[in-house]
Amino acid sequence: MNNQQNPKAIIVIFGATGDLAKRKLFPSIYRLYQSGKISEDFAVIGLARRSWSNEILRDKVGESIEDAFSSREDLEHFKSHFYYQSFDVTDSGSYQGLNDLILELEGMYHTEGNRIFYLAMAPEFFGTIAINLKTYCLKDNAGWARLVIEKPFGHDLPSAQLLNNQIREAFDEDQIYRIDHYLGKEMVQNIEVIRFANGIFEHLWNNRFISNIQVTSSESLGVEDRARYYDHSGATRDMVQNHMLQMVALLAMEPPIKLTTDEIRSEKIKALRAIRPIKSDEVDESFVRGQYDDGVLNGEQLHGYREEAEELANSNTETYVAGKIMIDNFRWAGIPFYIRTGKRMAEKSINIVVEFKDIPMNLYHQDESDRNPNLLVINIQPNEGITLYLNAKKTGHGSVAQPIQLSYNNNGAHSINTPEAYEKLLYDCMLGDATNFTHWDEVAYSWSYIDSILQAWEKKEPDFPNYASGSMGPKEADELLEKNGHHWWSIT
Ligand SMILES: NC(=O)C1=CN([C@@H]2O[C@H](COP(=O)(O)OP(=O)(O)OC[C@H]3O[C@@H](n4cnc5c(N)ncnc54)[C@H](OP(=O)(O)O)[C@@H]3O)[C@@H](O)[C@H]2O)C=CC1
Ligand SMILES: O=C1O[C@H](COP(=O)(O)O)[C@@H](O)[C@H](O)[C@H]1O
Fold this sequence. Notes:
Layout: E1 9-14, H1 19-34, E2 42-48, H2 54-64, H3 72-79, E3 82-86, H4 93-109, E4 115-119, H5 126-135, E5 145-149, H6 157-170, E6 176-178, H7 186-196, H8 199-202, E7 210-218, H9 227-252, H10 261-273, H11 283-286, E8 287-290, E9 292-297, E10 300-302, E11 320-326, E12 336-342, E13 349-356, E14 375-381, E15 385-393, E16 401-409, H12 418-431, H13 440-458, E17 467-469, H14 475-482
Parallel strand pairs: 1-2, 1-4, 2-3, 4-5, 5-6, 7-12, 9-17
Antiparallel strand pairs: 7-13, 8-11, 9-10, 11-12, 13-14, 14-15, 15-16
Helix pairs in contact: 1-12, 5-6, 6-13, 9-10, 9-13, 10-13
The structure holds NADPH dihydro-nicotinamide-adenine-dinucleotide phosphate and the ligand O=C1O[C@H](COP(=O)(O)O)[C@@H](O)[C@H](O)[C@H]1O.
Ligand LXAUTJHC binds near residues 219, 238, 350 and 418.
C-alpha cells in the first residue's frame, strides 16, 4: 500500500454521461478535492458516445455538485480539471485519441503517469475495454494503472469467470478494483473494529454464545427507472451476491493475522468458502423470494412491481429475498445467519442484529416469552451507530429486570451516505489500498453459492406478487425464522 496522502492521477471515466457518474462519481471526486485529499495534480477524462464538449461535461459536473460547492470560484476551478472525449468503446480508433489526450494532461497536471480507468458502463463492455487498454498500451505507463469495475460482475459463475478471464488478460489481480460500495460504508468498515478491538465481543463471537445473526438491507424505493437492468437481475444478483454476502463474510471471518489487504481478504474468502451450499431440492427450506404488490407507504399509494413499466407486466423477477445461511466451520456450526433485502419495504434501513444466547438459568425471566436476549445492533444506514441491549433492574420495583440500551450514535454529516462510500473507495483506489474491494475468489464463491438457489427458482414459477409495498416482505420470511424459534428484530 502506498501511504502518499495526496495521490496524483488521471481518472478516466468510461460512461461519463451516465447516471452513476452524475450521482456518485463527480460528487465523490469533488469531496476529495474539497477536503484536500487530492490536490491540484489530477484531471478527469469523461468518455461516452454522445458528442459533448469539455464545457458541457463541466456544466454537468457543476449540476451534480450543486448543493455541495463552497464558492463559485472554487467550483469553476474544480470543473476546469474535467475533459470530455467522444468515444465508442467498441471502436479501436478511439483509444489512440485517448492516449494522446492522457499524455497531454499528464504533462499539464504532473500526474507522474498514474492512471485510473473507471468502468461506469454496462458490464458487457468491461472485457473489450480492458483488452483495448492493453492493446493500445494505455496501461503500460511510467506510473501505476488501476482498473475500477462496477457491478454486476457477471450474471452467474460461468459469465463472471469469462469476464474475469478477459480482464485478467490485460490486468493483474492487484490492478483490479472490483467495487462493492457497501464496503465503503462507515459502519460496514466498523464491523471489523467492533469485533477485533473489543475483548468482550470477540470472546463471545461464536456458536457457544450467539444464537443467530440477522442482516437486513431494506429499501423503501422501488425499481425506479432501472427496470431494464433490474428485471434481468433481481434482488438475489443485485444485492445478495455482493453486498449481503460481503457483510456476512465480515461478520463470520476469523481475525486476520495482520490488517493488510491480503490477510483480510484471505479470511473473508475462507468464510465464504465455508458457507454450506444449498441443494436444489432444499432451497425452499432456506430461502424465500418475493415481489412487491401495490400498497401504501407513508400515506402514498404505490404501484406493484408489474405495473412500474410496460415490460414488467408479466415479470417473475424477485424484488425481495430472505435466506438462512449456514457456515460450516468450527466457529459457526449450527448458527444461522439470516439475511433479507428487498425493495418497497416499510423503510430504508441497513442493520445487523447479533442475538446472544440466553444464560442457562434466567432468574428474572422464567417465562420464555418474556425474555429479552442481549442484542448487539450495528446500524449502518440511515442511522449509524451501535447499540447494546442489556437487562438492568427496573428502578424502585424490587427485583424486576427490564431491557435497557447502551447506544453510540455515529451520525455525522452523511446520513444516506452512498456518495460518501464511493468517495472513500475512490480514495483507497488512488492510494493503492484494495482491502475494501472484492478479490476474484470472493466473487466466485458468492456466485457459486447463489447460482444453485437461482437455478432451483428458475424451475418453479413463483406465486408473485406476494408482499404489499410498504410491508416488511412476505409472511414466509417470518416463518423461515419461526421454524428455528427465532424472529426478525425490528430495529430502526
Ligand atoms: N447508477 C447506479 O446507481 C449504479 C450503477 N452501477 C453500475 O454502473 C454501471 C453504469 O451504470 P449507469 O451509470 O447507471 O448506466 P447508464 O446507462 O446511466 O450509463 C451508461 C454509460 O455508458 C455510455 N455508453 C454506452 N454505450 C457506450 C459505448 N459503446 N461507448 C462508450 N460509451 C457508451 C453511455 O453514454 P452514451 O450513451 O453517451 O454513449 C453512458 O454514459 C453499470 O455497470 C451499473 O450496473 C452500480 C451500482 C449503482
Ligand atoms: O447496489 C445497489 O445498491 C442499492 C442500495 O444501496 P444503498 O447504499 O442505498 O443501500 C440498490 O438500490 C441497488 O438496486 C443496487 O444495485
